[in-house]
Amino acid sequence: MFGRGFALGFFFFTISQIFLHSIIQLTIPPLKPDFAGIILDIVVQPRFIVVTTLFTCYTLFRRLAGSNEERGSQPNKFIRSLPLWYYLARYFPVSLVASDELREYARAHSLSEIKDMSDEKSVKMPLDRNYLVGCHPHGIFSTGAFLNFSTDATGFSDLFPGINRYLAVLKLHFLAVLYRDFVMRLETPSANHEVLCSKFSAVNRFLSSLTDG
């Protein structure tokens, strides 16, 4: 996967440079188009060497690290709690609300002998089972699902204390260089059968999936 990502990035960067230099030589007289010279000029440019070196080092680092990019195996609490997510949630606005049916379910299946009804701010879901949630409709960017289930912007941990939540996304998100590392820091797994079964191998998992996207 990293090999494909590196190859695609290298290819598009090279094509963009060739296109840019071609336009310059074709539109600014008295220069004449010399595509061999253009390619040679690009290859020896410092920025081309720097970008190629960085891509190579990044690819080698990810290969040697041997982490599983599809399981969201590198969670980072700092990334989930960035102030940016709170501002984004307030801008739309986006909020996370527990329905009355869900609260009744939590009360009915509470494992404690005394079911405390006084704390209405949180919904104490049973921690001895798993939960699978489908997000639909979610829009083009799935902003609501992202803020609710991948960040702490809307208070998921306070509303559902003790629940480990994940937002499964398409495998396509793990093909982009650097962006895949950002997705992994949010502990976001890939939405495929193997990964989902792995997540549900233990209890107390809340997995939300973007239906049709």
Automatic annotation (TrEMBL):
User: What Gene Ontology cellular-component terms does the record carry?
Assistant: endoplasmic reticulum membrane
Question: Major place of localization?
Answer: endoplasmic reticulum
State the Gene Ontology terms under molecular function.
O-acyltransferase activity
Which compartment or compartments is the protein found in? Endoplasmic reticulum membrane
Q: How does it sit in the membrane?
A: Multi-pass membrane protein
Write out the GO biological process terms.
lipid metabolic process
> Keywords of this protein's UniProt record, alphabetized?
Acyltransferase, Endoplasmic reticulum, Lipid biosynthesis, Lipid metabolism, Membrane, Transferase, Transmembrane, Transmembrane helix
User: Which residue ranges does UniProt annotate as crossing the membrane?
Assistant: 7-26, 38-61
| Entry annotated with the keyword Acyltransferase | yes
Signal peptide: which range, if any?
none
Q: Which InterPro entries does the record associate with it?
A: DAGAT
To which protein family does this belong? Belongs to the diacylglycerol acyltransferase family.
Could you identify this protein by its name?
Acyltransferase
Q: Which organism is it from?
A: Protopolystoma xenopodis
